[in-house]
Design a protein that fits this description.
This protein is an alpha/beta fold. The protein has two domains: 147 residues, Aspartate Aminotransferase, domain 1, CATH 3.90.1150.10; 227 residues, Aspartate Aminotransferase, domain 2. The chain is built from 13 helices and 15 strands. The strands form four sheets. It has a seven-stranded mixed sheet, sandwiched between helices. Helix 9 links the parallel strand 8 and strand 9. Helix 1 packs antiparallel against helix 13 and helix 2 packs antiparallel against helix 10. The longest helix has 23 residues. Pyridoxal-5'-phosphate binds next to helix 5 and helix 6.
Length: 413
């Protein structure tokens, strides 16, 4: 294959139909940010929006803002916008709580809908919080449920009529492997199994068609490709046909049919609002809305196409520039089976990532030995990928990773 040059990458950027979106973000100079799959970058509009909300709404209109600035409607309004990113109806998604809490709520609801079945199937490599939430809920319910963990290729055999829920993350956080959401949903439904999808690593990086796939429930994260900011509220989806049957696991007043009647007895709201528990986090939701609005301006098919090309470019450049250094590809080669990230295994992965970060190339490390690079197509350029791989080559060639202080593990990796 022909050797690629930096000029080739510049050419790709000059014809990139998404190129203009980069100016809509505040990105620090001298940084190549390959961690937008973990914490999305800061949209330029977020600062203005938060400043206005704090000064004018909270500062001046105070409690009246719940009505006059529709703070109370934010979970529904922003949920309806997220719905457009994931192929759902506007009354099927609500923005609230964290992904972990939303998983807990929907899994509890799903198990309640399949009282005779006691098995939850998931992947052994699923994101840890997803597995912990299942384990905790099983203990809390005390009804003899079982978590059956398998490898991705064993999933079809693991689905039998004892299974209540199939809990999958569409894009694996380590390997970037992408599930066929429609096909897995079909296989589950053939056995009467409900599907609960985690879209944390896929939403905002590719078109998702929950309703076309017949998905039952889903959750996802607000601070990754949705660019909602650190600890942004998450969201949850319940298909319309199920909404009356999914009991809210946390029966809070914001999910009551009439919260401001202050009635002593709980009565769930008829629709998706029943999965609200407490008062909405207004500042977090406002920041999330800016990120979601920005994504809604983009054509998600173009986002996906660029994401695949950025990943392919990275794999090809690492092959071209870094063959000698012992990296082992840990993600699918075929971009059709990959989310918006690539991964490599290397025994010195942690120190290599630290050495890259010291040079302004921000990727991340996932235990035990994975170097992970995420591509947020709205603000990443092809030349950024070139510069990152060039820096990786320098780090390896100069053994810049071989310094004891780089082995020091920070709390967050
Ligand atoms: C990021 C992520 C989460 C995050 O959960 P929080 O409750 O926000 O900490 C959950 N699941 C998956 C698959 C993720 O990628």
């Amino acid at each position: 294959m022909r050797r690629l040059s930096r000029a080739d990458c510049e050419r790709l950027d000059s014809t990139d139909p998404l190129g203009a979106f980069r100016n809509r973000f505040e990105l620090p100079d001298g940084i190549v940010y390959l961690d937008g799959n973990s914490l999305g970058a800061l949209p330029a509009g977020t600062r203005r929006r938060l400043d206005e909300l704090v000064r004018e709404q909270w500062g001046k209109d105070l409690i009246r803002s719940w009505n006059c600035h529709d703070w109370i409607g934010m979970p529904r309004r922003i949920g309806a916008k997220i719905a457009r990113l994931i192929g759902a109806g506007d009354d099927e998604v609500i923005a609230t709580d964290s992904t972990s809490v939303n998983l807990f709520k929907l899994l509890a609801g799903a198990l309640h809908m399949r009282p005779k079945r006691k098995v939850i199937v998931s992947e052994r490599g699923n994101f840890p919080t997803n597995l912990y939430i299942v384990q905790g809920l099983i203990r809390l319910l005390g009804q003899g449920h079982e978590l059956r963990l398998v490898e991705a290729d064993e999933l079809p055999c693991a689905l039998d009529t004892g299974v209540a829920v199939l809990l999958l993350t569409q894009v694996d956080y380590r390997s970037g492997r992408l599930h066929d959401l429609a096909a897995m949903t079909r296989q589950a439904h053939a056995k009467g199994i409900l599907t609960l999808w985690d879209l944390s690593h896929s939403a905002g990086a590719m078109p998702i068609e929950l309703n076309a796939a017949g998905a039952d429930m889903a959750v996802g994260c607000g601070y990754k490709y949705l660019n909602g900011g650190p600890g942004a509220p998450a969201y949850l989806f319940v298909a319309r046909r199920h909404q009356g049957d999914v009991q809210p696991a946390i029966a809070g007043w914001m999910g009551h049919a009439a919260p401001f009647e202050f009635a002593p007895d709980y009565r769930p709201a008829p629709g998706i609002e029943r999965h609200l528990a407490g008062t909405p986090p207004v500042l977090g939701l406002a920041a999330l809305e800016v990120g979601v609005d920005l994504l809604l301006e983009a054509d998600l098919h173009l986002v996906r196409e660029k994401s695949r090309r950025l990943g392919d470019l990275c794999l090809r450049l690492v092959e071209q520039e870094c063959t000698a250094f012992g990296f082992e590809r840990a993600c699918p080669h075929d971009s059709a089976q990959r989310g918006s990230q690539v991964a490599f295994r290397h025994p010195r992965g942690y120190a290599i990532i630290q050495a890259l970060i010291a040079k302004g190339i921000i990727g991340d490390f996932r235990a035990p030995d994975i170097l992970r690079f995420g591509f947020a197509p709205l603000y990443l350029r092809y030349v950024d990928v070139w510069d990152a791989v060039a820096a990786l080559h320098r780090v390896m060639h100069n053994k810049a990773w071989d310094r004891p202080e780089l082995e020091h593990k920070t709390t967050v990796t």
